[in-house]
Q: What sequence folds into this?
């Protein structure tokens, strides 16, 4: 018994005959999510650009603080155990950059809370917008602003004589680590935004972020600290990020330092962004 040509064609396609349609649908979904993420990223960046009054302090304040510390701590670099530097300005570069990007780190959460408060979030839910861009768009906007700040801070430090022993690659690692830290903080801010729907609740995390920077090795090496402050600084994740980046700047390139500088904020980012996704899914499922 022979099969008809039509049946032979169907049989030749096998059990995976529907895969092309499924793959095409998945590809279309990914493209749609990408377009939506880019649109929300653009909206986030434009919002920041229109509110330069909120961006400029994040650049000016760390620079002023670096200038004051460089003048006040000139003799501190002569202490036994202090890293070998030509100027305190070299030592404080990572701290100034992290401090600068931290000013806008919670913005991804603040924007989400604002959209929840004014109803824009509900309009997005009613539209064909997929879930992930609701979070990624704002995070990517914060990343763009943070990267621009980081490049500007490094350029200004170089103008005033700072030298980066690890070269341009070390500068890229520094900016990347700072950007990953922004994602980590932004993810946490989005969790709070989803749970509370309040800008005030998200903004309340900023003092904690700022305090964590000062209670780290940002402005002084931990080996010259003592007591409980040293214990807190050594256990502070900000120290785990700043120390390897600082070695790249002062001592030169090291793959071990690169790995630590990027792995720590990457792991924290993965945790906070995952928490934000879970919180968003629960919110959408319960409503």
A:
């Amino acid at each position: 018994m022979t099969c008809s040509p039509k049946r032979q064609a169907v049989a030749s396609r096998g059990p995976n005959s529907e895969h092309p349609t499924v793959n095409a649908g998945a590809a279309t979904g990914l493209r749609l999510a990408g377009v939506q993420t880019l649109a929300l990223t653009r909206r986030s960046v434009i919002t920041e650009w229109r509110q330069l009054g909120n961006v400029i302090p994040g650049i000016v304040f760390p620079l002023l603080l670096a200038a004051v510390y460089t003048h006040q701590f000139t003799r501190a670099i002569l202490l036994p155990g202090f890293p070998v530097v030509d100027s305190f300005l070299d030592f404080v570069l990572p701290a100034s950059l992290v401090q600068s990007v931290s000013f806008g780190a919670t913005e991804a959460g603040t924007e989400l809370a604002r959209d929840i408060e004014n109803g824009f979030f509900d309009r997005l839910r009613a539209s064909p917008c997929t879930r992930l861009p609701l979070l990624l768009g704002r995070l990517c906007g914060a990343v763009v602003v943070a990267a621009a700040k980081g490049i500007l801070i490094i350029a200004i430090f170089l103008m005033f004589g700072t030298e980066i022993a690890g070269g341009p690659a070390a500068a890229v690692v520094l900016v990347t680590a700072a950007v990953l830290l922004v994602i980590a903080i932004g993810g946490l801010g989005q969790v709070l935004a989803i749970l509370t729907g309040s800008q005030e609740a998200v903004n309340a995390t900023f003092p904690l972020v700022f305090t964590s920077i000062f209670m780290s090795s940002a402005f002084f090496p931990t080996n010259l600290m003592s007591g409980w402050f040293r214990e807190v600084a050594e256990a502070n994740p900000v120290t785990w990020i700043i120390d390897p980046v600082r070695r790249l700047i002062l001592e030169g390139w090291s793959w071990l330092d690169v790995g630590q500088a990027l792995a720590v904020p990457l792991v924290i980012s993965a945790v906070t962004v995952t928490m934000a996704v879970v919180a968003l899914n629960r919110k959408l499922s319960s409503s």
